Every structure is written in structure tokens, then in C-alpha cells.
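#struct-help
A.M.: can someone run this one for me? Single chain, 194 residues.
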Amino acid sequence: MSLPDFGTSVLEAMQHIVAARRIPLPTLSLWQHATAMFNKKELPHLIGQSLTTLKLQGYTPEDFVEHAIPWDKMVYSTDSLIDFGFKWHHMIALNFQPHHFQKLDWCHYLQLKIDANAMLQTCLSVHDLVALKLTPQQLHQMGWTWDHLTAIGANENNLNISKQDLNIYFGHAAKNSRKTTGKTDKPSISKFKF
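D.P.: on it. C-alpha cells below:
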């Protein structure tokens, strides 16, 4: 005698609920339409309910975009939102701002595949970037270049990165020292490259 697989049954039930929700409603009479308007709760009024509950009711990240719910109104943890199905393009569509990066951990940047170009979509300034306290290695891994950094107003003085790290990860310090001193020093043999 085998036991029923409730895990599969629950998943199938959720899929049917989502599919049923996506089917267009039949045309209603004027009276039915009026009463449905007063009884129906739209997604903006459901913010704060568990994301699992919203998922069971058939909501997806696209519904949040459709209802133009700003990212500031999201009361859920980043992990919960990622598990719900949010991707970077949903976050941008919901007006994700530079100060929202402070709620992200390094693992979130990796999961959402956020790189330098993605971060620049939010009109990030050098001060916003410095406030994130990302290491030079992390910035380099995300594809930040010296050109990206200068485009947002960075210079050697307002970045919390040593000259050695600027040289290693961005190739900046060696170029800058040659220009200012007028010397044509040979590049260091020990310069680290990826």
C-alpha cells in the first residue's frame, strides 16, 4: 500500500489555481460587475500578507509590476522576494533605487546576477557605492572598471580603496603616477592580472 504524494498534489493544485486566475473572466452584467468591484481585493491592498498566500492566490512578480507597486512598499525580506520569483528586471520596473542596495547581501548580488551595468541603471553615485562597503575584489567580480567608477564621480580620494588595490583591480594607480610625475617607469612585474 503506497501513501499519496501530497507534495506533488499541492504543487499541481497551485499550478491549477494560477492557470485559473489567468483565464479571462466571462462578461458580467452591470450588476455583477458592480458587486464584484466592491468585493474584490486588489494586490495593493494585499501587501503585507504572506508571499506564500499570495502565490497560492495566483499572484506572480509580474502582477506587482502590473499594479506598479513601488519597491519602497515591499515589506518582505530579499530572500523571500527572490524565492517568490523576483528577478532584477522586476526590481528595476518597481523603481529600485540606489539606497535599496543596502538591504542586499553579497549572495543576493550573485543570485540576481547584478553587475556594474545593472547597478548603473539606478543612477548610483560614488557615495552610494562607497556606502555599500563592497570590497575591491567584489567590485572587480561585478565588472566595475575605472571608467565605470569615474562615470559616477569616483576619484582616488573619495573611494575607500588603497592605491595598490586600485592598481591591481582597476589598473589606475600606475597610469596616474606616470602622468603626474612625468616618469616613464616600467610596469611592475608583480602586477596581478585576471
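A.M.: thanks! The two ends are 59 Å apart (CA to CA).
D.P.: also worth noting: The chain has two domains: 1-22+35-96, 119-194.
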